[in-house]
Design goal:
The chain is of the alpha/beta class and 373 residues long. The chain has twelve helices and 13 strands.
């Protein structure tokens, strides 16, 4: 059997390698505190589960329209100030991202990705035959310098990937800079794919959504905001001229998100429960962020996250060696390399874990650093 050429530039994720290291340590009887997780550590709220059970009992177990349940599309449209005709429900945010990639990345075209960034964007670009162009953000608080980005964007660019609040840094871009990037893309005929999956998890300035912008595909979902990672329910907001190409992919790729999950979320919106659910989780994430930043900034070069639930830390040494040594001491973190170039000395730390475990992890990190001294 021969692997397709389109996969020749794609390797198994380093995150997978770390997972295997952690699993091996556990089999050896070691207790590991994992700060690698990319999902809320909370179970799906009972308000959602109860409404999903109710929906299943009511027969929401079949296909829906490719576009999704009308009542959910209308609820999303109202929240983001767009028309329901601009909303398509997908089987998770990841499906929406691959739909957009297949719809708009031309083979041989440039794909702009500010780095560090979510590792899947690099994979999508390569799978679609794009040429990845990375824009370094480390010297600007992990935010793209608009002038530098403008220098690399031309008519050969098909897609610009943006992700704010950002995974892995927690950075939140301001509206002025965000709209400037959209304008640069528009002037060059490029599509902005704005991954806003963490838009409800913020601590300081409310993130700006690009929903409704004419050359923007806005990707979002409920995996993070409602702790529904296993339910696979996302959505895309875009002008109908952009939605149609993505529908061509979606109708044979995701088809539709689970009907009962769609109905459950629609009912959460209809009964005005969404904001209170999110607020509970964000309050706990904020407490953890404040603790972790206060402690780690005493040891490392750390940029204070303004959203999501990650901290991207410059540990001043090879990230793989650091991560492997820390696992031996009982704490797992994610090496920075999968998130793009220039991240050789960085690790991602997720605070989607209990405060008790975060406190233990910090003490382990301090012990590690004291052993080096």
């Amino acid at each position: 059997m021969r692997e397709a050429n389109r996969l020749s530039q794609i390797s198994t994720s380093m995150i997978r390698r770390m997972f295997e290291i952690v699993e091996r340590a556990k089999k050896e009887g070691k207790e590991i505190i994992s700060l690698t997780i990319g999902e809320p550590d909370f179970d799906t709220p009972p308000e959602v589960v109860e409404r999903a059970c109710r929906a299943m009992n009511a027969g929401f177990t079949h296909y829906t329209s490719n576009f999704g349940l009308e009542e959910l599309r209308e609820a999303i449209a109202e929240r983001y100030g767009v028309d329901a005709g601009q909303v398509m429900v997908t089987a998770g945010g990841s499906e929406a991202l691959i739909n957009a990639s297949l719809a708009f990345i031309e083979e041989g075209s440039k794909v702009i990705i500010p780095t560090p960034n979510f590792l899947s964007y690099f994979t999508y670009g390569k799978m679609c035959g794009g040429k990845i162009v990375q824009v370094k953000t480390h010297d600007n608080g992990f935010l793209p310098d608009v002038d530098k980005l403008n220098e690399v964007v031309d008519r050969d660019v098909s897609v610009i990937f943006l992700n704010y609040p950002n995974n892995p840094t927690g950075a939140v871009i301001r509206e002025k800079e965000l709209k400037a990037i959209v304008e640069i893309a528009r002037d060059n005929g490029a599509v902005v794919v704005s991954d806003e999956i963490y838009d409800q998890i913020y601590y300081d300035v409310k993130p700006t959504s690009l929903a409704g912008e004419e050359n923007v595909v806005c990707v979002n979902g409920f995996s993070k905001s409602l702790a529904m990672t296993g339910w696979r329910i996302g959505f895309t907001i875009a002008d109908e001229s952009l939605l149609d190409p993505m529908l061509k992919v979606h109708q044979v790729n995701g088809v539709c998100a689970p009907a009962f999950a769609q109905k459950a979320v629609a009912d959460v919106f209809a009964e005005s429960l969404f904001d209170s659910i999110v607020s509970r989780m964000v309050g706990e994430f904020r407490r953890r962020r404040d603790f972790l930043y206060a402690e780690l900034s005493k040891i490392y070069d750390v940029v204070r996250p303004e959203g999501a639930f990650y901290m991207f830390v410059n540990v001043g040494e090879d990230c793989m060696k650091y991560a492997e040594r820390l696992v031996e001491m009982g704490v797992a973190v994610t090496p920075g390399l999968p998130f793009g170039d220039y991240n050789e000395t960085y690790v991602r730390i997720s605070y989607a874990n209990s405060m008790e475990n975060l406190q233990k992890a910090v003490e382990t990190i301090k012990d590690y650093e004291s052993q080096k001294a």
